[in-house]
């Protein structure tokens, strides 16, 4: 049936942020930093891609290598390799357009495919990488144990669930499409609302575990199998009372401070979009204190949304001031600051 192109374009205006978040999980990083440069979702790299600041209205973006995509339709065609009629149909279905009233002649669809560059290949890569890892308590994982000990988190080592957190002894680090070296790495399983794995979060470490690897982006997400909104890294079993923080180390630090099971949401954007699992009755949000207030505002937005559905929610912010040379302070910084100072040799 003929699709009304003008109508679909008009209905999509003002909704492109939502449409791209739902249809194209490979844009997760770019959607979290609209207008700012991030790695290209197709060929990788360092910072060659960005979404335009008028994203809501037009949905466009540009890659310094791949070219200009003036609107969301062009962007989806580039990401998927689909022709325009198919992209138009997918967007129309996601908008919920149907027969009646508008004269559009569009029919409702029971489901809309999620757009990703290569979901089957991504699933295979995730599984292959996971199979190369070992338990954090394995003797081979000493760089991970040292990394956590240096951050004052050694108390949480025995509590790491090897079904969620693993160690890779020699993981390739890619930048601008080229391998820049191999480093030990902490891998963590990001689960969706239903508990199923969506992707892996990688933290590249220095060879001796004394800090993060000397690379531009020591923390990276692999291409997700579905949108990450609502999910988290489940660092503890599900209970009626949980904590939630942004990063893995921050969540482990919050566990040290409170004794509470704490999950990691990966970022402020995903923390704000967290969806409570069935049975959750109380949530403590262990927020980062940022100069931009991004962490605090995300935590407050989540608190208001959860309290509206009857979940008791509290926000905890570090009381320490942000150091002059830092952009933020988090609970991992607090725990590290409480460690006894080693005497100078």
UniProtKB/TrEMBL annotation:
InterPro entries: DUF7146, Phage_T7_Gp4_N, TOPRIM_DnaG/twinkle, TOPRIM_dom. This is Toprim domain-containing protein. It comes from Allochromatium humboldtianum. GO terms for molecular function: helicase activity; zinc ion binding. Residues 35-73 form the DNA primase/helicase Gp4 N-terminal Bacteriophage T7-like domain. Signal peptide: none annotated. Coiled coil: none annotated. It comes from the Bacteria.
